[in-house]
C-alpha cells in the first residue's frame, strides 16, 4: 500500500515524534511505501486567506465558492495541490497528533481547512447527480487511522471517563471529515501518558502502534452509517426504527451500543 502519514507535533523527540518514526519504519518493514507530511517541519501555514483563491482586492471572500473556482481552475497554491496529490496517491491515511484541548493542534486543523476544499473533498457530485459524502467521495476506498496521544490515563477517555469517550471526542474528525470525504475509518489509537513517558512506556506504545499498523489494511472499521444507504430520510435524519429511543453521536454508528451507557 501507499500510506500518507500526516504528523503534527513541534518536537521530534516527543512521544508523537518518536512513534511517527517507528510507525513509518514498521510500515516500510511490511513492504508499504510511506510518504510523510510533517506539518511543523514543513512550516505549514494553517491560515486560510484570500490569497489561496486568487481573489481580486475588491472581491468578497466566499470560502466554498472561492475554493471551488480555484480548484477547478488549477490555481490553488502549489503547497495545497501537493497535499491533494499525496491524498490521491495514498491507499491509507494516518493522522497523528497530540490531543490538545480535546482537539487537533491548529496546524493540523489548518491543513484540513486549506486542503479539503470544495470540488476536492466536498461539494462533489457522482454520475447519478447525488452529492458524494458520508461514505463516498475523494477518500472512498482509502483507509484512515487516527493516532493521538494524551497526558491523562486511558481510563479518563473510556466509556465513563471524565474526559469523555475517545471515539466521541474524535467524532468530528473521524466522521465529519474523514468519513464525510469517503474514507473507511478504523477505531482510533489513543496513547496515554505522553508528558511523562519512560523507555518502558515508549516500548509499550510502539508495540501497540505496530500491532495496529499490521492491521491497517484488514482491521474492521468503525461501522459508520453511509448517507446513501437507507438509514436516513430525505432530511438526513436517522430513521426512527434504527437505534429507537436513542440520540447522540453513537446512533450514527451501526449495531454498536451507546458508548456513554457502556460499563
Automatic annotation (TrEMBL):
Query: What class does this enzyme belong to in the EC scheme?
Result: oxidoreductase
Alphabetically list the UniProt keywords: Oxidoreductase
Mind telling me which InterPro entries this protein's record contains? Flavodoxin_fold, Flavoprotein-like_sf, NAD(P)H_dehydrogenase_qn
Which PANTHER family does this entry report, sorted A to Z? NAD P H OXIDOREDUCTASE-RELATED, NAD(P)H DEHYDROGENASE [QUINONE] 1 ISOFORM 1
Instruction: Tell me its family.
Output: Belongs to the NAD(P)H dehydrogenase (quinone) family.
EC number(s)?
1.-.-.-, 1.6.99.-
Keyword Iron-sulfur carried by entry: no
What molecular function terms (GO) are annotated for this protein?
Answer: oxidoreductase activity
Q: Report what the protein is called.
A: NAD(P)H-dependent oxidoreductase
**Flavodoxin-like fold domain segment(s):** 1-210
Pfam family of the protein (one): Flavodoxin_2
What is the top-level taxon of the source organism?
Bacteria
Entry-linked Gene3D superfamilies? 3.40.50.360
